[in-house]
Amino acid sequence: MDFNNLKLNKNGLIPVVTQDIDSNEVLMVAYMNKEAFDKTLETKKVHYYSRSRQCLWLKGETSGHYQTLKHMALDCDEDTLLVKVQQEGVACHTGAYSCFYKEIDLETKNMVEMGDRTKPKSESVLSIFEEVYNIILDRKKNPKEGSYTNYLFDKGIDKILKKVGEETAEVIIGSKNEGNEEVIYEVSDLIYHLSVLMVEKDVTWDDICNELGKRR
């Protein structure tokens, strides 16, 4: 693809909207020139053109907050690029995960800063569930001596179901006590054993999400 065939501004630049590949959160808007575009495709590390410094800019070069290119697309007019990235650290120089942390209150029309703006959102709840699922799946395909997960698979579906039942009861008991620490611990145990059951039954988190989506 020839960068010069795109609809560039008078300075030979094209605006770039950068999104988190996992959450689709918009992280920032910047510009690329031909060199930045070519370097991004060549290295898979996102480069921009700094209009203030008037030079090539490798995102994360000084902060370590690199952006690894995962997807690139053009809009219908071919005058704006969309890049989806795996963000390391945070995207904004202020320490916020996204540069778009200042909201406009639609009622008061005032600008307000979002709370917890430094919390990375790329590691979504679902991505953690999927990571645990994939580790369990790997254990099933590649057994490891002494692995509790392999012990459950070796014992079979009845043992797995028994553990799911036991952990469900532990959640109920833990929820009767003061504080949330025990609830968090027991729910985590339950989710792990449910994940083992899902792998055993060849059910994925996509299957679960699709079913939940029907119930909204």
Keywords:
216 residues; alpha+beta; four-stranded mixed β-sheet; 8 strands; elongated
Structural features, described:
The protein is of the alpha+beta class and 216 residues long. Helices cover 39% and strands 20% of the residues. It has six helices and eight strands. The strands form three sheets. It has a four-stranded mixed β-sheet with strand order 2-1-6-5, covered by helices on one side. The protein has a two-stranded antiparallel sheet with strand order 3-4. A hairpin with a 6-residue loop joins strand 7 (102-104) and strand 8 (111-113). Helix 2 packs across helix 5 and helix 4 (157-175) packs antiparallel against helix 5. It is elongated, with a radius of gyration of 23 Å. The two termini are 42 Å apart. Mean pLDDT is 90; it is low at 118-123.
Helix content: 25-40%
Main sheet strand line-up = 2-1-6-5
* Mean pLDDT over the residues: 90
| Strand-residue proportion | 15-25%
Order of helices and strands: EEHEEEEEEHHHHH
Question: Shape, please?
Answer: elongated
Describe the biggest sheet? 4 strands, mixed
- From the alpha-carbon coordinates, what is the Rg to the nearest angstrom? 23 Å
The number of helical elements comes to 6
Oligomer: single chain
Low-pLDDT runs of 5+ residues are: 118-123
